[in-house]
Amino acid sequence: MATEDTYGDAYGGGQGDRFRQGTVPRDAPPPPRRPPGPPPAAPGGAAPTESPFVAWLRAPRLSPQPGVWAYEHRPRPAQEPGRVPGRQLVGGALIAFLCGWLLWSLLWNGYLGPYWRWPLKAVIPDDWDVNTPEWYEASWVYYALVVAILATVFGRIGRWPELWRRYGTPVLRRLTAPPRRLVARFAPGLLPPAQPEQIPTDKLMLRAGSALAGAVVLWLLCWNGVLSTAWLWPLYQFMPDSWRGSIASLSYAAYTYYLLFTVVLLRVASRIGLWKEARRRWSGEPAGRPEDGAGPRARLAPAAPPADPADWPGLRAAGAHDAADRLAAEARAGLMNDVDYARLDRAWQTVQARPSRLAAFTDTVLRHGAAACAHPSGARDLPERLARHDLVTRQVRLGRAADDERNPYALRGAGCALDPAVLGTSLLAVGPPGCGKTGRLVRPVLESLCLQALAGRAAVVAVGAAGAGLAPDEAFDVVVGIGRPDSAYDLDLYGGTDDPDEAAAILAEGLVGDLAAALPGGDSRRAATALAQLLGPYRAVHGRFPPVPELRELLDGAPEAVDRLRSALAASGQDALVRELDARQRQAQRPGDAGPVLADRLALLDRPAFARFFGTDDPDRTFSLRALEHPLRVRVDLPERGHAEASRLLARLVLAQFTECATARADRSLFACLVLDDATHTVTPETVRGLARLRSANAGAVLTLRTLDDVPEALRSALLGAVGCRMAFSGVTTWDGARFAEVWGKEWVETRDVTDRQVIAHEPLTRALHVLRQVVTGRAVTTQSVTVRTVERERWSASELAHAVPAGHAVLSVTSVAGETAPPVLVDLTG
């Protein structure tokens, strides 16, 4: 398949120069009619004038470890803090309040003497009489301080802040939701933005000062009566009539109300003016300080507010201000989507590697805006998305970590995601049919890789049964429907190579790789040698490799086909290849020759349904995996119905070609990934070795299995060890669970053993009380002894994997290419 003019260096791959002077990418399609796929900003989190794309782009992203959804992730402590039960919390707070009230009542009524008023009398002048206004004001301040001290002490004892956070804050949030919606509609500038750290310092300080000035002006207007006495309505409404005749009671009530009014006014002003962020900027504290135990990645918070990514600071730093202004304007106008941003960011990285392309890149951006450097297909998004994607971090969200005691506390409730950094170690998923492997794993991962291919960051090959619903045809550049008369593309059996030995090794792996243990020598080397002895001579004569019918004839040793090939070789004077052909004929006479086995397997592809396929005379129609250097989206549909054995053979062949072609790429800047929906009977010893080599080639594979029994027993442990990401769905068998439990290992945990011991009384009165208690409760009097031990146990046992994983859940562990690991986590795939 010709691809030289289709995929260029705008994506960091291929040999074309799409930014060369005078070469402009094809005209891009019109911009999307709606904002892109990224999730919209939270209600009230940003002003309505800000496009959803800009809000998505400015959102914080923090990933403490591999496999965590970084978009708006909030880290949690590594250890679970002691959570007080609700009844105990409410009871303790009520008791603390009553105790504080009792102590204040005893102080106020003089039961504890006048000693607590001595500090007041020591600081006020002697000429302030008890009935003077000065006394009332000074005593009110002193009593307020005493009450504040009592409230602080008993509040800490009764855990009032925790009670407010648990029960008061949700109620207050629901009560203030309607006013916030009104403010967001008519005065959006009064609401705090979702990312205050993105506001420039001068604008932030101006906003903080304006809020303070507004609060002072409002207070003066209220105090001087300019706004009438409406602000005093709560005081007049709730103050008892008996207090109006007492100067002391009226003064205390009025000054208390003034204080509360001032606190509320300052609180509102601080929210509007972002005083917290202003104080952080003024003091020089770093932004986004994580909690303890959030992980090494979470501690990498910048000391200064980061630059606004919507302004394209990289382009501005390089002097491309016009291009940055054009892209920033289209981003704020909603004419850019997440694929555009990722694609342009990738193109900019290419320009940074080769600065000579800056002028052409700027010219292209000024012409086409967000549609510049478009994918050769012209697509700027997929026809539909079913999963949540974040192309800034290249992640796809699979679900959330369940709130289960077997999950680490720091990960409970966090989103679980996959990205090329972990897919580069390859992923193996095992689960019975109907558990959600295709819909909840393969489809989201395939969507993510197709989006990254549109952004020029990846190349993806999806292999599955026809009608499996991996993704619609419009989401791919190449759809190879093997056995379908309407298929526009064919599959190259030889992997696009010109070397007969390499082509023979790949084809032998696909044909008899699953029978390697039964072949002479215990591997497929003799089968590869037999194929090479035929492919080399045939290519020397015809300039191409043989199609399936002719190769089958040669493997069967048909005299006419062999004689024609020998005559052509002799006529061209290629004596070395004639000797190769003679050696093949001699070996065919020996017992245990691999030729008949190869011919029998090849007969599965020499069927009328495949008559239009596996040809070698139409290179424009034939797709080869050598095109992985370009951002291709390829889907290979296998003829599952009626040709199950042929489908397995082809899946094994594509897997062998992928591992060979991905590692042989000259340009590895694109992440290449193979998604194999059903890897039944496709795993061979050479496959396991190939999966291990993908990690260093910026490539990976996603394999799904119904059970590990579909893999030869000798390769099961090796397969689990070769992949870095492992996923066990609900419904796996105990013997499959035992394999996962073994590879996930053990951990040290703290256990508590509680022992009940019966209490034997020796005194008559105590014995009588014990007898009475036993009659009433029906249980003997016992005491408990608790033993705390640290023991080593399996992270997930085989029984737990088989019986304790709920439907719609899976246990996932990931490893990044850099070597970072994450423990197995129970993931709710519906969350």
UniProtKB/TrEMBL annotation:
The keyword Transmembrane applies. The chain crosses the membrane at residues 89-111, 140-157, 211-232, 252-270. Gene3D superfamilies: P-loop containing nucleotide triphosphate hydrolases. Residues 1-49, 283-315 are annotated as: Disordered. Residues 283-294 have a biased composition (Basic and acidic residues). The keyword Cytoplasm does not apply. Keywords: Membrane, Transmembrane, Transmembrane helix. Residues 27-42 have a biased composition (Pro residues). This is ATP/GTP binding protein. It comes from Streptomyces mashuensis.
